Automatic annotation (TrEMBL):
It catalyses: alpha,alpha-trehalose 6-phosphate + H2O = alpha,alpha-trehalose + phosphate. Pathway: Glycan biosynthesis; trehalose biosynthesis. It comes from Sphenostylis stenocarpa. This is Trehalose 6-phosphate phosphatase. Residues 52-86 are annotated as: Disordered. NCBIfam families: HAD-SF-IIB, T6PP. Belongs to the trehalose phosphatase family.
Length: 409
Protein backbone atom coordinates (compact mmCIF):
# COMPACT_ATOMS: atom_id res chain seq x y z
CA UNK A 1 0.00 0.00 0.00
CA UNK A 2 1.38 3.41 -0.94
CA UNK A 3 1.90 6.27 1.50
CA UNK A 4 -0.95 8.15 -0.16
CA UNK A 5 -3.31 5.23 0.37
CA UNK A 6 -2.25 4.95 4.01
CA UNK A 7 -2.84 8.67 4.54
CA UNK A 8 -6.26 8.54 2.90
CA UNK A 9 -7.23 5.52 4.99
CA UNK A 10 -6.24 7.29 8.21
CA UNK A 11 -8.11 10.45 7.22
CA UNK A 12 -11.13 8.34 6.31
CA UNK A 13 -11.00 6.62 9.71
CA UNK A 14 -10.73 9.94 11.53
CA UNK A 15 -13.68 11.35 9.57
CA UNK A 16 -15.80 8.37 10.57
CA UNK A 17 -14.88 8.88 14.21
CA UNK A 18 -15.61 12.61 13.95
CA UNK A 19 -19.17 11.93 12.82
CA UNK A 20 -19.81 9.78 15.87
CA UNK A 21 -21.75 11.39 18.69
CA UNK A 22 -19.46 9.56 21.12
CA UNK A 23 -16.50 11.78 20.20
CA UNK A 24 -16.17 14.78 22.57
CA UNK A 25 -14.86 18.07 21.20
CA UNK A 26 -11.95 17.90 23.64
CA UNK A 27 -10.66 14.79 21.86
CA UNK A 28 -9.73 16.74 18.71
CA UNK A 29 -6.20 17.75 19.84
CA UNK A 30 -5.47 14.21 20.98
CA UNK A 31 -6.46 12.73 17.64
CA UNK A 32 -4.29 15.22 15.80
CA UNK A 33 -1.34 14.42 18.05
CA UNK A 34 -1.84 10.70 17.50
CA UNK A 35 -2.02 10.97 13.72
CA UNK A 36 0.35 13.90 13.29
CA UNK A 37 3.40 11.71 13.02
CA UNK A 38 2.15 9.74 10.02
CA UNK A 39 -0.02 12.19 8.09
CA UNK A 40 1.36 14.55 5.48
CA UNK A 41 0.64 18.28 5.69
CA UNK A 42 -2.31 18.30 3.20
CA UNK A 43 -4.01 15.45 5.06
CA UNK A 44 -3.40 17.17 8.41
CA UNK A 45 -5.08 20.33 7.16
CA UNK A 46 -8.02 18.38 5.78
CA UNK A 47 -8.46 16.41 8.99
CA UNK A 48 -8.16 19.48 11.22
CA UNK A 49 -10.73 21.39 9.17
CA UNK A 50 -13.09 18.41 9.22
CA UNK A 51 -12.82 17.71 12.93
CA UNK A 52 -12.91 21.28 14.20
CA UNK A 53 -15.72 22.83 12.18
CA UNK A 54 -17.20 20.04 10.07
CA UNK A 55 -16.94 22.15 6.89
CA UNK A 56 -14.40 20.02 5.05
CA UNK A 57 -15.06 17.16 2.68
CA UNK A 58 -16.73 15.16 5.43
CA UNK A 59 -18.46 16.16 8.66
CA UNK A 60 -21.33 18.57 8.23
CA UNK A 61 -21.15 18.43 4.43
CA UNK A 62 -21.74 14.68 4.43
CA UNK A 63 -24.51 15.07 7.00
CA UNK A 64 -26.11 17.76 4.85
CA UNK A 65 -25.99 15.53 1.79
CA UNK A 66 -27.55 12.66 3.72
CA UNK A 67 -30.26 14.87 5.23
CA UNK A 68 -31.17 16.30 1.81
CA UNK A 69 -31.20 12.86 0.22
CA UNK A 70 -33.35 11.46 3.02
CA UNK A 71 -35.80 14.37 2.73
CA UNK A 72 -36.23 13.80 -1.00
CA UNK A 73 -36.46 10.01 -0.62
CA UNK A 74 -39.43 9.29 1.66
CA UNK A 75 -39.90 5.68 2.68
CA UNK A 76 -43.54 6.16 3.59
CA UNK A 77 -46.18 8.51 2.25
CA UNK A 78 -49.10 9.40 4.47
CA UNK A 79 -52.51 9.22 2.88
CA UNK A 80 -53.96 12.57 1.94
CA UNK A 81 -57.49 11.34 1.33
CA UNK A 82 -60.27 13.14 3.20
CA UNK A 83 -57.84 15.84 4.30
CA UNK A 84 -58.18 19.55 3.68
CA UNK A 85 -55.87 20.92 0.96
CA UNK A 86 -52.59 22.06 2.42
CA UNK A 87 -51.02 25.40 1.49
CA UNK A 88 -48.62 23.42 -0.71
CA UNK A 89 -51.42 21.96 -2.84
CA UNK A 90 -53.04 25.38 -3.07
CA UNK A 91 -49.85 26.85 -4.54
CA UNK A 92 -49.09 23.73 -6.59
CA UNK A 93 -52.46 22.25 -7.64
CA UNK A 94 -52.95 19.04 -9.57
CA UNK A 95 -52.25 19.41 -13.28
CA UNK A 96 -55.19 17.07 -13.90
CA UNK A 97 -57.60 19.28 -11.97
CA UNK A 98 -56.27 22.37 -13.75
CA UNK A 99 -56.16 20.77 -17.19
CA UNK A 100 -58.68 23.11 -18.80
CA UNK A 101 -56.77 26.16 -17.57
CA UNK A 102 -53.49 24.76 -18.92
CA UNK A 103 -55.12 24.17 -22.30
CA UNK A 104 -56.38 27.76 -22.36
CA UNK A 105 -52.88 29.05 -21.55
CA UNK A 106 -51.42 27.06 -24.45
CA UNK A 107 -54.08 28.14 -26.95
CA UNK A 108 -52.58 29.17 -30.29
CA UNK A 109 -49.03 28.28 -29.19
CA UNK A 110 -46.63 25.50 -30.10
CA UNK A 111 -46.43 23.01 -27.25
CA UNK A 112 -43.02 21.44 -26.60
CA UNK A 113 -42.85 18.68 -23.99
CA UNK A 114 -39.87 17.78 -21.80
CA UNK A 115 -40.00 14.75 -19.53
CA UNK A 116 -37.66 13.25 -16.97
CA UNK A 117 -37.42 9.45 -17.04
CA UNK A 118 -37.00 7.82 -13.62
CA UNK A 119 -39.93 8.62 -11.34
CA UNK A 120 -41.80 10.34 -14.18
CA UNK A 121 -42.11 7.94 -17.10
CA UNK A 122 -41.19 4.90 -15.02
CA UNK A 123 -41.54 4.16 -11.31
CA UNK A 124 -38.55 4.34 -8.98
CA UNK A 125 -37.34 0.75 -8.52
CA UNK A 126 -34.67 -0.89 -6.39
CA UNK A 127 -32.54 -1.89 -9.38
CA UNK A 128 -32.02 1.12 -11.71
CA UNK A 129 -31.28 -1.29 -14.58
CA UNK A 130 -34.88 -2.52 -14.35
CA UNK A 131 -36.68 0.82 -14.50
CA UNK A 132 -38.84 -0.30 -17.40
CA UNK A 133 -41.47 1.92 -18.95
CA UNK A 134 -44.94 0.49 -19.53
CA UNK A 135 -46.24 -0.21 -23.02
CA UNK A 136 -49.04 2.28 -22.37
CA UNK A 137 -46.52 4.99 -21.61
CA UNK A 138 -44.52 4.18 -24.75
CA UNK A 139 -47.67 4.35 -26.88
CA UNK A 140 -48.58 7.67 -25.27
CA UNK A 141 -45.14 9.15 -25.96
CA UNK A 142 -45.27 7.97 -29.56
CA UNK A 143 -48.64 9.66 -29.99
CA UNK A 144 -47.47 12.87 -28.31
CA UNK A 145 -44.38 13.06 -30.55
CA UNK A 146 -46.65 13.00 -33.61
CA UNK A 147 -48.19 16.30 -32.53
CA UNK A 148 -45.35 18.33 -31.03
CA UNK A 149 -41.60 18.10 -30.27
CA UNK A 150 -40.92 15.83 -27.31
CA UNK A 151 -37.68 15.39 -25.36
CA UNK A 152 -36.54 13.03 -22.61
CA UNK A 153 -34.23 14.87 -20.18
CA UNK A 154 -32.53 12.46 -17.79
CA UNK A 155 -29.51 12.02 -15.57
CA UNK A 156 -28.84 8.70 -17.25
CA UNK A 157 -26.71 8.35 -20.36
CA UNK A 158 -28.55 8.52 -23.68
CA UNK A 159 -27.92 4.87 -24.59
CA UNK A 160 -29.63 3.62 -21.42
CA UNK A 161 -32.61 5.94 -21.76
CA UNK A 162 -33.01 5.05 -25.43
CA UNK A 163 -32.95 1.33 -24.61
CA UNK A 164 -35.80 1.92 -22.16
CA UNK A 165 -37.88 4.20 -24.41
CA UNK A 166 -37.02 2.88 -27.91
CA UNK A 167 -38.61 5.77 -29.80
CA UNK A 168 -36.41 7.26 -32.53
CA UNK A 169 -38.64 10.28 -33.07
CA UNK A 170 -37.83 11.88 -29.71
CA UNK A 171 -35.06 14.23 -28.60
CA UNK A 172 -32.80 12.83 -25.89
CA UNK A 173 -30.80 14.85 -23.36
CA UNK A 174 -28.76 12.49 -21.18
CA UNK A 175 -26.26 13.08 -18.37
CA UNK A 176 -28.41 15.92 -16.98
CA UNK A 177 -28.45 17.60 -20.38
CA UNK A 178 -24.73 17.29 -21.11
CA UNK A 179 -25.33 14.93 -24.05
CA UNK A 180 -28.07 16.07 -26.43
CA UNK A 181 -29.16 14.30 -29.60
CA UNK A 182 -32.03 14.81 -32.01
CA UNK A 183 -34.46 12.37 -33.61
CA UNK A 184 -33.13 9.76 -36.02
CA UNK A 185 -34.16 9.56 -39.65
CA UNK A 186 -37.72 8.32 -39.36
CA UNK A 187 -37.17 5.96 -42.27
CA UNK A 188 -34.43 4.23 -40.34
CA UNK A 189 -34.81 2.51 -37.00
CA UNK A 190 -31.11 1.89 -36.50
CA UNK A 191 -29.66 3.24 -33.29
CA UNK A 192 -26.72 5.57 -33.74
CA UNK A 193 -28.05 7.74 -36.55
CA UNK A 194 -28.86 10.66 -34.27
CA UNK A 195 -27.41 14.05 -34.95
CA UNK A 196 -25.19 15.06 -32.06
CA UNK A 197 -26.43 18.49 -31.04
CA UNK A 198 -24.32 19.32 -28.02
CA UNK A 199 -21.79 17.80 -25.60
CA UNK A 200 -20.41 20.58 -23.38
CA UNK A 201 -18.43 18.25 -21.09
CA UNK A 202 -16.51 16.08 -23.57
CA UNK A 203 -13.14 17.01 -22.06
CA UNK A 204 -14.20 15.43 -18.74
CA UNK A 205 -14.72 11.91 -20.12
CA UNK A 206 -11.27 10.53 -19.08
CA UNK A 207 -11.69 11.97 -15.57
CA UNK A 208 -15.23 10.60 -15.24
CA UNK A 209 -14.06 7.11 -16.23
CA UNK A 210 -11.14 7.29 -13.80
CA UNK A 211 -13.38 8.27 -10.89
CA UNK A 212 -15.88 5.59 -11.87
CA UNK A 213 -13.26 2.85 -11.54
CA UNK A 214 -12.13 4.21 -8.16
CA UNK A 215 -15.67 4.42 -6.80
CA UNK A 216 -16.50 0.89 -7.94
CA UNK A 217 -13.60 -0.42 -5.85
CA UNK A 218 -14.27 1.87 -2.87
CA UNK A 219 -17.96 0.95 -2.62
CA UNK A 220 -17.55 -2.82 -2.97
CA UNK A 221 -17.55 -3.39 0.84
CA UNK A 222 -20.94 -1.63 1.18
CA UNK A 223 -23.80 -4.11 0.58
CA UNK A 224 -26.29 -2.84 -1.99
CA UNK A 225 -24.20 0.10 -3.22
CA UNK A 226 -24.19 0.58 -6.98
CA UNK A 227 -22.14 2.99 -9.09
CA UNK A 228 -23.63 3.84 -12.49
CA UNK A 229 -21.60 5.37 -15.31
CA UNK A 230 -23.81 7.82 -17.20
CA UNK A 231 -21.05 8.92 -19.57
CA UNK A 232 -20.71 12.58 -18.54
CA UNK A 233 -21.70 12.02 -14.91
CA UNK A 234 -21.79 9.26 -12.30
CA UNK A 235 -24.54 8.08 -9.98
CA UNK A 236 -23.96 6.32 -6.67
CA UNK A 237 -27.24 4.61 -5.80
CA UNK A 238 -28.33 4.18 -2.17
CA UNK A 239 -31.65 2.47 -2.95
CA UNK A 240 -30.53 -0.98 -1.76
CA UNK A 241 -28.17 0.24 0.98
CA UNK A 242 -29.14 -0.04 4.65
CA UNK A 243 -29.87 3.50 5.83
CA UNK A 244 -27.46 2.98 8.72
CA UNK A 245 -24.65 2.77 6.14
CA UNK A 246 -25.61 5.89 4.20
CA UNK A 247 -23.24 8.18 6.10
CA UNK A 248 -20.20 5.93 5.69
CA UNK A 249 -20.94 5.44 1.98
CA UNK A 250 -21.36 9.18 1.47
CA UNK A 251 -18.03 9.74 3.23
CA UNK A 252 -16.32 7.31 0.87
CA UNK A 253 -17.74 9.12 -2.15
CA UNK A 254 -16.95 12.57 -0.76
CA UNK A 255 -13.38 11.60 0.03
CA UNK A 256 -12.78 10.36 -3.52
CA UNK A 257 -14.27 13.50 -5.08
CA UNK A 258 -12.11 15.72 -2.85
CA UNK A 259 -9.17 14.82 -5.09
CA UNK A 260 -11.01 16.11 -8.17
CA UNK A 261 -11.80 19.83 -7.82
CA UNK A 262 -13.29 19.92 -11.34
CA UNK A 263 -16.08 17.59 -10.23
CA UNK A 264 -18.99 18.41 -7.93
CA UNK A 265 -21.23 16.29 -5.74
CA UNK A 266 -25.02 16.72 -5.59
CA UNK A 267 -27.84 14.63 -4.13
CA UNK A 268 -31.13 13.27 -5.42
CA UNK A 269 -33.65 10.56 -4.57
CA UNK A 270 -31.47 7.95 -2.83
CA UNK A 271 -28.57 8.86 -5.10
CA UNK A 272 -25.42 10.98 -5.07
CA UNK A 273 -24.47 12.50 -8.42
CA UNK A 274 -20.93 13.33 -9.54
CA UNK A 275 -20.88 15.91 -12.32
CA UNK A 276 -18.36 18.21 -14.01
CA UNK A 277 -18.31 21.78 -12.70
CA UNK A 278 -19.40 23.15 -16.08
CA UNK A 279 -22.35 25.53 -15.89
CA UNK A 280 -24.79 23.17 -17.51
CA UNK A 281 -27.91 21.45 -16.20
CA UNK A 282 -31.41 20.40 -17.25
CA UNK A 283 -32.50 24.02 -17.41
CA UNK A 284 -29.69 24.86 -19.83
CA UNK A 285 -30.63 21.79 -21.88
CA UNK A 286 -34.24 23.00 -22.08
CA UNK A 287 -33.10 26.41 -23.32
CA UNK A 288 -30.74 24.83 -25.85
CA UNK A 289 -33.46 22.60 -27.29
CA UNK A 290 -35.92 25.48 -27.55
CA UNK A 291 -33.28 27.50 -29.40
CA UNK A 292 -32.52 24.54 -31.69
CA UNK A 293 -36.22 24.30 -32.51
CA UNK A 294 -36.37 28.01 -33.34
CA UNK A 295 -38.26 29.13 -30.22
CA UNK A 296 -35.49 30.94 -28.32
CA UNK A 297 -37.20 34.35 -28.49
CA UNK A 298 -40.66 33.26 -29.55
CA UNK A 299 -43.85 34.30 -27.77
CA UNK A 300 -45.75 31.51 -29.50
CA UNK A 301 -44.27 28.55 -27.66
CA UNK A 302 -45.59 26.74 -24.59
CA UNK A 303 -42.95 24.45 -23.01
CA UNK A 304 -44.18 21.83 -20.55
CA UNK A 305 -41.58 20.17 -18.32
CA UNK A 306 -42.53 17.20 -16.13
CA UNK A 307 -40.06 15.80 -13.59
CA UNK A 308 -39.79 14.43 -10.07
CA UNK A 309 -36.25 15.07 -8.87
CA UNK A 310 -34.20 17.90 -7.41
CA UNK A 311 -32.25 18.17 -10.68
CA UNK A 312 -35.49 19.03 -12.52
CA UNK A 313 -35.77 22.22 -10.48
CA UNK A 314 -33.23 23.87 -12.80
CA UNK A 315 -35.70 23.45 -15.66
CA UNK A 316 -38.63 24.66 -13.54
CA UNK A 317 -36.67 27.81 -12.68
CA UNK A 318 -35.95 28.50 -16.36
CA UNK A 319 -39.66 28.32 -17.21
CA UNK A 320 -40.56 30.69 -14.37
CA UNK A 321 -37.87 33.12 -15.49
CA UNK A 322 -39.07 32.98 -19.10
CA UNK A 323 -42.68 33.44 -18.04
CA UNK A 324 -43.63 30.78 -20.56
CA UNK A 325 -45.05 27.31 -20.20
CA UNK A 326 -45.36 25.33 -16.99
CA UNK A 327 -43.36 23.01 -14.78
CA UNK A 328 -45.06 19.96 -13.28
CA UNK A 329 -43.54 18.17 -10.27
CA UNK A 330 -44.30 14.46 -9.88
CA UNK A 331 -44.56 13.94 -6.13
CA UNK A 332 -46.96 12.63 -3.50
CA UNK A 333 -45.44 14.73 -0.74
CA UNK A 334 -44.94 18.49 -0.34
CA UNK A 335 -41.56 19.71 -1.59
CA UNK A 336 -40.01 23.10 -2.11
CA UNK A 337 -40.32 23.58 -5.86
CA UNK A 338 -40.48 26.11 -8.68
CA UNK A 339 -43.01 23.95 -10.52
CA UNK A 340 -46.49 25.39 -11.04
CA UNK A 341 -48.45 22.15 -10.85
CA UNK A 342 -48.11 18.61 -9.53
CA UNK A 343 -48.93 15.02 -10.45
CA UNK A 344 -48.93 12.16 -7.95
CA UNK A 345 -46.92 9.51 -9.79
CA UNK A 346 -46.10 8.08 -13.25
CA UNK A 347 -49.61 6.63 -13.56
CA UNK A 348 -50.99 10.18 -13.60
CA UNK A 349 -48.48 11.10 -16.29
CA UNK A 350 -49.36 8.20 -18.56
CA UNK A 351 -52.29 7.08 -20.71
CA UNK A 352 -55.77 8.35 -19.80
CA UNK A 353 -54.14 11.01 -17.62
CA UNK A 354 -52.30 14.26 -18.18
CA UNK A 355 -49.96 13.60 -21.12
CA UNK A 356 -52.51 11.52 -22.99
CA UNK A 357 -55.24 14.11 -22.48
CA UNK A 358 -52.84 16.77 -23.70
CA UNK A 359 -52.14 14.82 -26.87
CA UNK A 360 -55.83 14.40 -27.57
CA UNK A 361 -56.16 18.13 -28.16
CA UNK A 362 -53.74 18.03 -31.07
CA UNK A 363 -55.36 15.28 -33.11
CA UNK A 364 -58.61 13.44 -33.57
CA UNK A 365 -59.81 12.02 -30.27
CA UNK A 366 -62.71 9.64 -30.36
CA UNK A 367 -64.84 8.67 -27.37
CA UNK A 368 -67.42 5.96 -26.84
CA UNK A 369 -68.29 2.90 -28.88
CA UNK A 370 -69.90 4.97 -31.64
CA UNK A 371 -66.58 6.81 -32.27
CA UNK A 372 -68.04 10.26 -31.69
CA UNK A 373 -65.54 13.17 -31.75
CA UNK A 374 -64.93 14.52 -28.27
CA UNK A 375 -66.81 17.85 -28.08
CA UNK A 376 -64.20 19.72 -26.04
CA UNK A 377 -61.36 18.58 -28.30
CA UNK A 378 -63.15 19.69 -31.46
CA UNK A 379 -64.01 23.09 -30.00
CA UNK A 380 -60.38 23.56 -29.02
CA UNK A 381 -59.26 22.72 -32.55
CA UNK A 382 -61.79 25.11 -34.04
CA UNK A 383 -60.72 27.97 -31.78
CA UNK A 384 -56.99 27.52 -32.29
CA UNK A 385 -57.06 29.12 -35.75
CA UNK A 386 -54.37 26.74 -37.06
CA UNK A 387 -56.06 23.70 -38.60
CA UNK A 388 -54.57 21.05 -40.85
CA UNK A 389 -56.72 19.66 -43.70
CA UNK A 390 -57.61 16.69 -41.51
CA UNK A 391 -58.57 18.97 -38.63
CA UNK A 392 -60.69 21.08 -41.00
CA UNK A 393 -62.49 17.88 -41.92
CA UNK A 394 -63.09 17.24 -38.22
CA UNK A 395 -64.34 20.81 -37.85
CA UNK A 396 -66.84 20.37 -40.66
CA UNK A 397 -67.92 16.99 -39.37
CA UNK A 398 -68.40 18.45 -35.90
CA UNK A 399 -70.58 21.26 -37.28
CA UNK A 400 -72.73 18.80 -39.25
CA UNK A 401 -72.95 16.20 -36.52
CA UNK A 402 -75.86 17.77 -34.54
CA UNK A 403 -77.96 17.84 -37.69
CA UNK A 404 -77.22 14.18 -38.36
CA UNK A 405 -78.08 12.79 -34.95
CA UNK A 406 -80.30 15.45 -33.44
CA UNK A 407 -79.38 17.37 -30.31
CA UNK A 408 -77.11 14.72 -28.87
CA UNK A 409 -73.84 16.06 -27.48
Amino acid sequence: MTNRNVNNTLVELAMSISNSSALPRAAVPGIMALLGGVLGLPQKKLLLKTLEDGSGKGGHKVNTLIDSMRASSPTRVKSTQNQDPSPWTLYHPSALNMFDQIVCESKGKQIVTFLDYDGTLSPIVADPDKAYMSQKMRATLKDIARHFPTAIVSGRCIDKVYNFVRLAELYYAGSHGMDIKGPTNRRSTKKGNEQVLFQPASEFLPMINEVYNILVEKTKPVPGAKVENNKFCLSVHFRCVDEKSWASLAEQVSLVISDYPKLKLTEGRKVLEIRPTVKWDKGKALEFLLESLGYANSDNVFPIYIGDDRTDEDAFKVLRKRGQGIGILVSKIPKETDASYTLQDPTEVTKSCFVHRLGSFCGIWWSGKERVPNTTSCRFLMSSGKLTPTQNLVKGWFQLYPFLVGNRK
